[in-house]
Amino acid sequence: MVNRKACIYCGSSRQCDPVYLAAAEQLGRVLARNNVTVVYGGGAAGSMGSLAKGALAEGGRVIGVIPEFMVKIEWANPRITETVVVRDMHERKKQMMERSDAVVALPGGSGTLDELMEAITWKRLGLYLGPIVILNTRSYYQPLFRLLDQCIGQRFMDSRHARMWTVVQEPEEVPQAIETAEPWSEDCRKFAAL
Ligand code: AMP
Predict the structure, then answer these.
(1) What is the CATH number of the domain that holds 148?
(2) 135 vs 89, 158, 192, 194, CA distance in Å?
(3) What separation in Å is there between the alpha carbon of 12 and the centre of ligand 1?
(4) Index of the ligand 1 atom closest to the CA of residue 108
(5) Whose CA is nearest to atom 15 of ligand 1?
(6) Which residue among 16, 17, 40, 48 is best mutated to probe the pocket of ligand 1, counting the most ligand atoms within 8 A of its Cβ?
(7) What band does 2 get if pLDDT is binned at 50, 70 and 90?
(8) Domain containing residue 12
(9) How far is the CA of 75 from the centre of ligand 1 (A)?
(10) Less packed terminus of the chain by CB within 10 Å, N or C?
(11) pLDDT on residue 109
(12) From its phi and psi, is residue 155 left (phi > 0), alpha (psi between -120 and 50) or beta?
């Protein structure tokens, strides 16, 4: 994969199990080795910091998109390649997606879930057409997959919507999952609403 950019959603927690931090750091390394620029929230804490550390250690490019208020409270990561300061969280999410060819979600808290759900929702509406890869470290996302199955089973979503995302277990599988994601087009608007 050459000169691509991936938007990474991940947790800011320093207190999560170190297995999640290690997966984020390894993903950073893997993306850098595959010439994929990391676009992320620009923080230094938790999985976000580990992701940036891994990518930079392999000579990769890391772009952080961070709202002004977080810069003021010194949450911005000073070590990354480029920092884009934006007005608010809405602008951050929009820019992170617009600056990327694919999105990847790692385990995280409410912020990560919000970002992942927004990507899925925008793809369902044909506003975002790229791959969505979920790195399911330690089966973290199983409860979410059960809920999404329920959305489809109870006819709040169509079974075709389950094709919007790909699930992988290991960071090493992410580049291939991005490359082989099923194509998605604005035709999805025909079944966006049931
Ligand atoms: P969470 O998954 O709840 O930890 O949220 C991760 C998201 O929350 C990030 O993408 C940011 O939007 C935001 N966030 C929360 N804390 C921080 C922090 N210390 N530095 C940067 N971003 C943060």
Answers:
(1) 3.40.50.450
(2) 23, 23, 25, 29
(3) 5
(4) 2
(5) 12
(6) 48
(7) low
(8) 4-190
(9) 9
(10) C
(11) 98
(12) left
pLDDT digits (tens, 9 = 90+) for 85-135: 999 999 999 999 999 999 999 999 999 999 999 999 999 999 999 999 999
Whether 97 and 75 have beta carbons less than 8 Å apart is answered as no
For the chain, what is the domain count?
1
Q: Is the model's pTM score more than 0.85?
A: yes
DSSP H helices in the chain: 18-33, 46-57, 68-72, 89-98, 110-124, 142-153, 174-179
Burial class (CB in 10 A: 0-12, 13-18, 19+), 147: exposed
Helix (H/G/I), strand (E/B), else coil: 119: helix
